[in-house]
Amino acid sequence: xxxxxxxxxxxxxxxxxxxxxxxxxxxxxxxxxxxxxxxIGCADSRVPANDLVDLAPGELFVxxxxxxxxxxxxLNCLSVIQFATxxxxxxxxxxxxxxxxSGVIAxxxxxxxxxxxxxxxxxxDVRNRHAGWLDTVPAASRVNALCELNVVEQALNVCQTxxxxxxxxxxxxxxxxxxxxxxxxxxxxxxxxxxxxLDDTGVAYExxxxxxxxxxxxxxxxx
Length: 223
Ligand SMILES: [Zn+2]
Fold this sequence. Notes:
Layout: H1 5-21, H2 25-31, E1 37-42, H3 49-52, E2 60-65, H4 75-87, E3 92-98, H5 102-108, H6 117-129, H7 131-134, H8 139-159, H9 162-169, E4 175-181, E5 188-190, H10 201-218
Parallel strand pairs: 1-2, 1-3, 3-4
Antiparallel strand pairs: 4-5
The structure holds zinc ion (ZN).
């Protein structure tokens, strides 16, 4: 099969269903998109942004890459954040990681996957920053612990972009969040890395880290 006809057929059915359920849906969207949320998530096929939060086209602005990484010099991600913040005026930026993330596993275990190693290196920086604590986590829980730490660190990176800092400086309403999605149960969890102004960044970061530590300390077997 070379034409992917099945996908095109699916699309025709989907568009028909949408239009039947909400007449005029597509022509209304044509005028303007006004999403309230920017989702920065992993490219993993098991974590489809709109589906997980049951939002329709037009309601969620989305950026995805391997292991939901926000790098200070990544023009792609920064441009998405800038467009969402300045032009669309989204009210929330949500960094969403997920359990058992392949990028995080590769980072944790020094697995070579190819060119992407250079990208995953950013997750290794997170691993190295928290190496002392990660060593205390039972091996079976270490991947998910690093998935959560990675969310907290990448959400911190969002807070540290000039785009977000400038928005806060001019009094724009904008809240940064860190969530993790459980592949095993389909549930999103708020990691409490919630920041709505520059001065709150450090406190939120420390509280979110402490919460990750507490969660995985509880996972340790009794002595
Ligand atoms: Zn992933």
